[in-house]
Amino acid sequence: MNRTFALFFSPRGTVHDVGVLPRERAIIAAVIRKGADPVTVEEHLDELEMLLDTAGADVAGRLTQERDRPDISTAFGKGKVEELKELVESNNATSVVFDDELSPAQVRNLEEALKIKVLDRSGVILDIFAAHARTVESRTQVELAQLEYLLPRLTRMWTHLSKQFGGIGTKGPGETQIETDRRMYRTRMQRLKEKLKEIDVQRVVQRKGREGLPRFALVGYTNAGKSSLMRVLTKADVYVQDQLFATLDTTVRTFALPSGQKALVSDTVGFIRKLPPQLVASFRSTLTETLEADILLHVVDISNPHYREQMAVVEQTLNDLGASDTPVIVVFNKIDVLDDHATMDDAEAESPGCVFVSAHRGLNIDRLLHVMQSTYEESAILRLLRIPYEEMNVVARLYGEVEVLRRSDEDSAVLLSVRVPADQLAPFTARYRRYVTTEQPSQPTAL
To answer: How many distinct structural domains can be found in the chain?
Structure first.
């Protein structure tokens, strides 16, 4: 029998190992809106099945119902709930997982009808994040997201009082306990937010130490191969696992562009459709590395038949984060396992300037590096500054803020040729306006 380790995260942030448990058996379910594409629905359910496999559950069956809108009480209609109950019993299922988010009332009513645990996609994703969180930061972020998800669902834990008796005389104790738990959750959430603010300050200090270097960030759908690409670019030991959300913590490494210029590349959490908003909010400090990058590498698993939809999810998430204006290089990965090479022709036509690679086998990485360098040079703007010797503190500050390409020591001043990222040009010019010369800077040579 396949078995899996289980961890329980308490509201106080302590992780309890409850040992080795048998893999759960789940039924997956979805409400299909009338007019929806059945193929797309099946794709979403296939992905939910992958999520459950990562979380430690086997899918024993699936059930869908076409409706104008989900039933407000149970998502499914009454007859379909009975059919779901029969499917649960015949397959000895231990849980039912809906593809779309359920309201607390829907979860409570379904659990009463089915007599087993009921979850939604958000709950599964949060569980996977909890299992994969390794550092203090990611564990803090995940716990905050879990508490925000659980807070409106606390009432389901106290329904046993009204179930046994109901009516007058049963409200007090349950409601008092619920309010106590809510206060505890809110207090814990406030502490976690304060802790994340402290971590964010540390991140700002770390980023200041890396200013002046070109910055690239890997973004993409979960399991697209971002960590594998980072490992081959930086020749560093980066955690790589063929499963969803293997990477939660931002990793920043140095590497060399073809010119010899040192640069930085960061890898962070992958995106997925229907990503719980609580996670996007709590991981915002981690995703700052993406927001502050000069160039984004959008890594796409081109061997996945649904890669276009995955690209759209990533693009929408970047737009929601405010990173839609950052220059992007589309990197189609896993060409070594691509069966239909006509797919590459279609992808290139749809994404001009893209690069095809295999991070696993190290194919076409040199081509990617040259594209990264040329894209950075095109997106940055050269400026020439003349700083008097009596203001050498400005020279030191510039070395920490931008990429210094050339330095010439004149009789009365230092002449610096610098490269400024396009999105930083306005504040840079405002800060150093009196030092900027009208001369045209010569083309740089690497220092």
So the answer is: 4
